[in-house]
Amino acid sequence: MKKRSLWFTSPRCVEIREENQNGPSEGEAGVRVIISAISPGTEMLVYRGQVETDMPVDEVIESLAGTFQHPFQYGYASVGMVEEIGIGVDPDWLGGRVFSFHPHESYYYARPETLMRIPDGVSNEDAVFLPNMETAVNFLQDGAPRLGEDAAVFGLGIVGLLSVSLLLAFPLNTILGVDPYPVRRDAALELGLPNCVDPETLGKTGRKILTHGRGFDLVYELSGAPSALGQAISAAGYEGRVVIGSWYGNKPVVLNLGGHFHRSRIQIISSQVSTVQSGLTGRWNKKRRFETAWRQIQRIRPSKWITHRFPLDQAQSAYQHIDRHAEDTIQVVFVYD
Length: 337
Fold this sequence. Notes:
This protein has 337 residues and is α/β, with parallel strands linked by helices.
């Protein structure tokens, strides 16, 4: 059997490589991939070469071993079906739909403990959103929204939309969405978000009107744009919390931390999904957070935000489209034969 795998070969260049496989080893399952999702944030930093080449690709996920030194594989949202099992694997895995934090490729072998069964009632296209939904759950846990607060979300890409979907379930006073692209603002408005603006027109007026002059209690910076962090800090009120969910890679961030930031005691919180914050670990672990994410996927059904589908063989075109046409893109996926 042959498999096709996506490799990042140099900045803004990917290629598909084909190789033979010999079948599962003892304790492994063979998974035929149905769909995988491109992360429009982290993965585009990788595609553009905006990450440190000696940095580990991932320190937790074993299928993402190595560094960002070209060539390497990447991707972490893969949905497929178990078609083979090796010696010692429970036959109950055969035919099951599974999710895996695995790079983009058409077929792979893995130990069952690295696979997650997809709950009944969750479609394949919804299931590929698991990593971003887990990330959104983590953002809310780290930001800890409170009754009656005013919140703002900078960046209404897929993680921003998922975070807004969760925030709307809280009894907040108001939520503001900030994004330069109408297609994303429209998606947020369709969710029921009451206020969406372009970052260029936000200014101080929106901050004062929506929060009665207080500034926002809770601000999320999820745009991936370094310039947005300064705006997010400016939007926060006295002792406001600014949760940074963006990873900027090696892009520099220039901030003015005098005046408003210093005198208003603004809190900056770094939120990263690989771990659970220490204040929750007495009751929460990754398993519980995944269970929560699956339930929210069933409620929100995020596949409605898939804007483009490409066969894996057109991977270069898929990345080029995200890179050049962010204005019409929310979520791009690869579909497999």
